[in-house]
Amino acid sequence: NLAIAFDAAATGSGDPVSSITFSHTCTGSNLILIVGFSMDTDVATGVTYNSISMTQAVKNVGTGSGNTSYIYYLFAPATGANNVVISGSAAGLIRGTSVSYTGVSQSGFPDASTSADFTGTDDSLTVTTIADNAWAVLFTGYQRATAAGAGSTQRATVSNASVYDGNSAK
Fold it and tell me: What is the torsion angle, in degrees rounded to the nearest 10, for the CA atoms of residue 110, residue 136, residue 163 and residue 63?
């Protein structure tokens, strides 16, 4: 049994740009790198880490804000400091976060996922995992100024785009 642990987090942003690049440092073994970002239009063309393409896990096109949020992941990313590159087909606002974890099973991600476009005051969301000892990771788009709720830890923020996790197995 692997014990999942937080490794590192980083951020990057730009406006108006068609891509952003920022450094993320992975250490340890059995790693996963997760990149969450928002764009003011639905123009993302991909994400790389150390020039390796990442896999899209979630996409949410905002109905109220017009922003689109994405989550990409990569199993076994290269260790050390490497560049995250988020690319789009047109220039606009991009706000990105990255987070890595050690001790992660190298298959079966995401275990479960959901997305929502919050426009009111209730920013609650429920996800039911399939596997025991899974961690929950949440990305919020840049227009939602939020704080870590009970049982969660904020890992990185750039212009109100944030990444959180449960900081323990669920």
Answer: 70
**pLDDT, averaged across the chain:** 84
Nearest to 71, CA basis, from 108, 109, 101: 109
Tokens of 69: 């949020």
Write down the pLDDT at residue 169: 76
**At residue 108, what is the residue type?**
G
Going 156 to 75 to 70 to 16, the CA torsion angle's sign is positive
| Residue of 136 and 97 predicted with greater confidence | 97
Q: Are strands 5-26 and 68-75 parallel, antiparallel or unpaired?
A: unpaired
List, edge to edge, every strand of the sheet that includes 153-158: 137-140, 161-165, 153-158
| Dihedral pair phi/psi, residue 150, rounded to 5° | -55, 130
Cα–Cα dist 42/61, whole Å: 7
Identify which of 32, 47, 3 has the alpha carbon closest to the alpha carbon of residue 109: 32
**Hey, what are 42's tokens?**
């639905």
Q: Which amino acid is at 170?
A: K
pTM of the shown model: 0.87
Q: In terms of DSSP bridges, do strands 80-102 and 32-39 run parallel, antiparallel, or are they unpaired? A: antiparallel
